[in-house]
Write a structure and sequence with these properties.
Blueprint (H helix, E strand, L loop, with lengths): L9 E4 L8 H11 L3 E5 L1 H5 L1 H4 L2 H8 L2 E6 L10 H7 L8 H17 L4 E4 L11 H18 L4 E5 L5 H11 L4 E5 L1 H6 L5 H8 L3 E6 L1 E3 L9 E3 L8 H11 L5 E3 L7 H15 L1
Parallel strand pairs: 1-2, 1-10, 2-3, 3-4, 4-5, 5-6, 6-7, 7-10
Antiparallel strand pairs: 8-9
Helix pairs in contact: 1-12, 8-10, 10-11
Pfam family, one: AP_endonuc_2
EC number: 4.2.1.118
Organism: Luteitalea pratensis
Length: about 280
Amino acid sequence: MNAPSLSARLAVCSWSLQPASPQELIAAVRATGLNRVQLDLDPLRESPDVWASTQALLEEAGIEVVSGMFRTVGEDYTTMETIRVTGGVAPDATWEPNKANIAATVPIAKQLGMRLVTFHAGFLPHDETDPAFVTLAQRLRDIADMFAAHGIGVGLETGQETAPALRDLLKILDRPTLSVNFDPANMVLYDKGDPIDALRTLGPWIGQVHIKDGIRTKVPGEWGEEVVVGSGDVDWTAFFAALHEVGFTGDLCVEREAGTTRVADIAAARELVEAIQ
């Protein structure tokens, strides 16, 4: 059986569109030319008075929810160092509120019929005997088990570690419901290796892909620059060829986290993907 076309697998990340309500989300999704979405679950948890009707409105609009996403408490993306210290579920100071938020997110994802929810795990210590590594690994197992109890998988977003480090972590965690949300731009923005090589390394674990582009920094330790898909360092023709090579047939969610013309930028990404296939 042939996999669906690339364009049929496209979705848009709802947070990229910065909607203040489900009605705004629907209008923005339609403006991109797409009808599938990866849904930010934080607004549904934080502002149920505004977002309680999301599921019904999306269904009525014919927009499919392909997966979910949540953020963690205290994330500071000001610099690479601040996100290393504050990101994900690694920091002890924010673990309890994060755990509570995740517990509240699980039933929302279940109600929406989700099969996958993604997030940034946080900085991974290099030494497996480091107590911080052991603690983070256990937290990730706990999160995977919380969602798995309701038939939901968890995708760890690529970012602050190399592909081999993330692969080794997944082997250690030993949870079949854990996968990778592969973002090629993050490999560039965090300067963590070639995205095509990383894709091949993580191929067996990839559960979802983000379509995002970036330009690698020329100053080690500083951010690269996120740019419109097709204008950065990701070789998209080679990228999709490698996706086919590793047998990935899942969803491709366009993400845009910078700029003031996001709807147009996302539409441009859609057009690029449609032209490649």
